[in-house]
Amino acid sequence: MKRAAVLALVVAALTSTLLAGWVLQSRMAARAQNTALPPLDTAGDAASRAWKRDPTWPQRDESQFNTLTNNHLSPPAPQAPRALRPPISGDPANGQKLVADRTRGGSCLACHVMGQAGDADLPGNVGPDLSEIGNARRDDAWLFNFVYDARVYNRDTVMPPWGTNGLFNDTEISDIVAFLKTLSKPAVFKSALDDPSRRPPPVEKRANLDALENPGMWAIDKAPVLWTTRGPNGSSCSTCHTKPDETFRTWAAAMPHWESRLDRVLGVEEFVARHAKATTGHDWLMQSDENTALATYLRYLANGVPINVAVASGPAKAAYERGRALTALKVGQLNFSCNDCHEKSALKWIRGQWLVGQRGQLDHFPTWRTSLQKTWDIRTRFQWCQVNIRANELPPDAKEYGDLELYLTAASAGLKLSVPGIRH
Amino acid sequence: MADAPRMKVPKEAEKGEIIEIKTLLPHIMETGFRKDENGATIPRRIINTFRCEFNGKPVFSADLESAVAANPFMQFTAKVEESGTFKFTWIDDDGTITTAEEFISVR
Q1: Domain boundaries, chain A
Q2: Which of A262, A338, A352, B7 has the greatest number of CB atoms lying within 10 Å of its CB?
Q3: What is the CA A23 to chain-centroid distance, rounded?
């Protein structure tokens, strides 16, 4: 009799445990259907702790120059042009080398056609053609000051402050001035390709959704395997989301979104990191292979859906406005804002690179980069841009990047997702 | 799964038809000319040979050198007279041999 009682108790305990497990699972499944509050890890970081730049990227430390979080670091613009005692004598041959020097952040040829500038090719056309500046009767002091810091003549200039920000010293600027004074004839280009006004803009025609064309598509095979891989908590994505291709048919087209529990905009990559951690225990940090594959997959599931992010009211609207303000912030040693290239200089060339506007960018991220054999998410793209204009980048989950991503995604509203992209 | 070869071969064809075959093998194709962040040369490791046979007979083969980009993509045509199996072979510098097969039904 006693044994039967014990057995009955054990059976009852087992049944209630199983029942509790079943109730928990169906509750989790029910919660999964309620897309308003998916569980998120809010305690940890979504990216590597103690953020460290990719070792294959330039390792310059640019802490003396503005970033998107602190725009009081760079040396201030001079109040007035420097008073210089003429004549400013420089070496035009050295000036000719300096204007073509790519290690100096451009330099001048990145934006200006400059007649016959040595062996340099592919000048840009962001700035005016300077091939006949020697005929313009500008005095030496004016030319010197324009190169040293153009802001003294034009507060809104796109031109980097070559002198104020320490890119060229006074001797080098004198050499550049000496070279400019020799420019008195229109440029003669080696071919139509060399002339930025005749160079055909690149058009991306590759079949980005063909796995034989775009290695970025291999993430679409990797992701379903990750989806069913159990994490330390014993569950996997598939525990709650059994049919992702149905459930997430339009989800990514509404991302990024405002997340009040974190007081920031949450993009797909950060969402994956925090949600996976909270539910499965997986540590799929932003920019890891797993995170990037899943972010690609989740956006891929919404391919063909027009981008539609919420920015009309409340904290999302405030984030959108902050994002807009960020695109006007000048950062880095080259003192560029997003708008300098992607609004004021859209549809122009910097050296051999074609600049486009802000609309049409966020419909194809994450994107496979053929020159790097890697898939980049949008936060990596932001970071790379910062490093290239010689500003310290922020960690991928920075709030500023979230605001920026929301603003730029809204700029692509109505465009259909086509992920993964493929680019050089 | 990400390292498996990918192929596009028609499932069916007419006798005597010329079909197009595309193959891609995910592979780093390390040229042997790159240097790592410490300045040391990264050793070469490429696919040096690609072969395609149909029912045991050679159809197409190639010797690859360092200039071939990562994830070597080979596209070629073949005239099929009978049903059978295409066998693809990739040989790595390190000795690894990867093979794959595709069957085609010929009317």
Answers
A1: 51-75+206-424, 92-194
A2: A338
A3: 43
Is the CB of residue A218 less than 8 Å away from at least one CB of chain B?
A: yes
- Phi then psi for residue A31, to 5 deg, are -65, -35
**Residue A313: how many other CB atoms lie within 10 Å:** 8
CATH of the domain at B70: 2.60.40.10
From chain B, pick out residues whose CB is under 8 angstroms from the CB of A292.
none
Measured distance CA(B107)–CA(B103) in Å, rounded: 13
Structure tokens that stand for A194 in this block:
């060399």
Residue pLDDT, tens place only, A248-271: 999 999 999 999 999 999 999 999
The predicted model scores a pTM of: 0.87
Minimal CA–CA distance to A252: which of A382, A96, A365, A171?
A365
φ/ψ (deg, to 5) at B87: -115, 125
Contact between B68 and B1 under an 8 Å Cβ cutoff? The reply is no
pLDDT the model gives residue A118: 65
Buried b / exposed e along A130-165 (16+ C-beta atoms within 10 A): bbebbeeeeebbbbbbbbbbbbbeeeebbbbbbbbb
Cβ separation B8–A373 shorter than 8 A: no
Please give the CATH superfamily to which domain A92-194 belongs.
Cytochrome c-like domain (1.10.760.10)
Same fold for the pair A51-75+206-424 and A92-194: yes
The answer to whether the Cβ–Cβ distance between B73 and A212 falls below 8 Å is yes
